[in-house]
Amino acid sequence: MNCYLLLRFMLGIPLLWPCLGATENSQTKKVKQPVRFHLRVKRGWVWNQFFVPEEMNTTSHHIGRLRSDLDNGNNSFQYKLLGAGAGSTFIIDERTGDIYAIQKLDREERSLYILRAQVIDITTGRAVEPESEFVIKVSDINDNEPKFLDEPYEAIVPEMSPEGTLVIQVTASDADDPSSGNNARLLYSLLQGQPYFSVEPTTGVIRISSKMDRELQDEYWVIIQAKDMIGQPGALSGTTSVLIKLSDVNDNKPIFKESLYRLTVSESAPTGTSIGTIMAYDNDIGENAEMDYSIEEDDSQTFDIITNHETQEGIVILKKKVDFEHQNHYGIRAKVKNPHVPEQLMKYHTEASTTFIKIQVEDVDEPPLFLLPYYVFEVFEETPQGSFVGVVSATDPDNRKSPIRYSITRSKVFNIDDNGTITTTNSLDREISAWYNLSITATEKYNIEQISSIPLYVQVLNINDHAPEFSQYYETYVCENAGSGQGLFF
Fold it and tell me: What is the pLDDT of residue 29?
């Protein structure tokens, strides 16, 4: 039967080389052949793996030894190495079969080499055995630090989020062999970011560990470290930075900057006039800082407040005209609130901020004011010059009460004095003019630009100042013998 010659390596790993040996008892059919080593049937070698550590600093690192049991040490055998890397990366001592690595190896670039071995009888030049493949595997050492994959990291999380809220997951990769001990087993830790953040050691998941207020600090830099060898001594590490920004929630109500505002309005201002602005501030941003202003208290119903949504100011406007002489000051109370408040945040907005507004009415020099919008007087015709017709009256509505001067326009038959008394300057004849349509003007003495005018109507009443007159001359005829009571002829 066949026997096997045992090749032994210095690494202690046996390789079986089939060969023809002496005959032994066997259940298989016996084939008798002369025992001669140079006459062999085709048979293959069975090779195990060689291992060589990566990153060896020596220029010639002994890996192992190939040696045939047929080699009797007389240097008649020559060992050859074939395949990719033979001669450049690996060499073999042709006499002894010792294999050496002559270059530094990097497992992350190439983890194994498949080579072929051949044994030649130098006396005959023939192969002692058919060439056979064997593997040199580069074993891993922990020479790669963890690297984070998706830098830079940035995350956004709402402020006031509860403890345990997921922020982001960071992931590192280690190029070392994950099957080689703990070289590629990573452990995450937090170098910067306490006490607000924590990281899960095995997953790299960052979570909130303490509530944060955006109005105090709106962003945080967190530094995460990843260590291989699960953090054991000699482990390599890599770090990454994570920028965590806090998004705003509506946890602040608007508050007035001032508790008292003083505004003025002219009594001549028309309704709808803007008389001033009030301003509240809100520490929130965006939609959460939008405001609505309104009147909380105004007994006179004279003013209103509208909101400028661009500037977030409250604009105080005049809803009804004011009169300095009637009321020269007002007091109103305004309030402000956010229009967009989620139900869960209403606890921050239970009581609206308010402010008091004092409004002073400014006096304006107004024209004289007549007691009536128009006057109607009556006077009999044929009254003598200087006869009394009637009295008009106008006053200065302002506090200084300027004296008033009166005048009549478009009239030569009436006169008015500074007391507003109207008299005739000529005799009136109803038959010439029964009505006079006039205009009375009142002018302030202190400011002649302040003028008011109203219409004046004077009716001339009739008196019996004319004897009847025939409309034409009549000529009459009568007969000479006419009797008593007989009519006349015209």
Answer: 35
| 467 within 8 A of 477, measured Cβ to Cβ | no
pLDDT of residue 23: 31
Omega within 30 of 0 (cis) for the link into 195:
yes
Give me the helices (H) in 64-172, please.
Answer: none
Diameter of the chain measured on Cα atoms: 216
- Measured at the CA of 436, the angle between CA 430 and CA 440, to 5 degrees, comes to 150
Residue 230 DSSP symbol: G
Domains of the chain, earliest start first: 49-139 (2.60.40.60), 147-247 (2.60.40.60), 255-362 (2.60.40.60), 369-461 (2.60.40.60)
Report long-range pairs for 162-167 (Cβ below 8 Å, ≥24 apart): 162/208, 162/211, 163/207, 163/208, 163/209, 163/210, 163/211, 164/207, 164/208, 164/209, 165/207, 165/208, 166/205, 166/206, 166/207, 167/197, 167/206, 167/207, 167/208, 167/242, 167/244
Q: What does the alpha-carbon distance between residue 152 and residue 149 come to, in Å, rounded to a whole number? A: 9
Q: Flag whether the pTM goes above 0.70.
A: no
CA distance 324 to 360: 9
Helix (H, G, I), strand (E, B) or coil at 354: strand
Asked if 346 and 301 touch (Cβ cutoff 8 Å), the reply is: no
Q: Strands, E, within 147-269: which ranges?
A: 147-148, 153-158, 166-169, 172-173, 187-192, 197-199, 205-208, 219-227, 237-247, 255-256, 260-266
In DSSP terms, which residues pair with 17 in a beta bridge? 5
Per-residue pLDDT at 140: 76
How do residues 408-438 score in pLDDT, each as one tens digit? 987 889 999 989 999 999 888 888 889 999 9
What does the pLDDT read at residue 487?
66
* Separation CA 46–CA 298 (nearest Å): 105
Long-range contacts of 442-445 (CB under 8 A, 24+ apart): 442/367, 442/368, 442/370, 442/394, 442/404, 442/405, 442/406, 443/368, 443/404, 443/405, 443/406, 443/407, 444/367, 444/368, 444/396, 444/402, 444/403, 444/404, 444/405, 445/402, 445/403, 445/404, 445/405
Q: Residues 318, 302: contact at Cβ < 8 Å?
A: yes
- Look at residue 204 in the predicted model and tell me its pLDDT: 96
> Rounded to 5, what percent of the chain is helix, strand, coil?
5, 45, 55
pLDDT below 50 — which residues of the chain?
1-47
Q: Which of 114, 116, 122, 57 is nearest to 95 (CA)?
A: 122
Cα 467 versus chain centre, distance: 100
pLDDT for res 14 = 35
Q: Which residues contact 366 (CB under 8 A, 6 or more apart)?
A: 267, 268, 396, 397, 398, 450
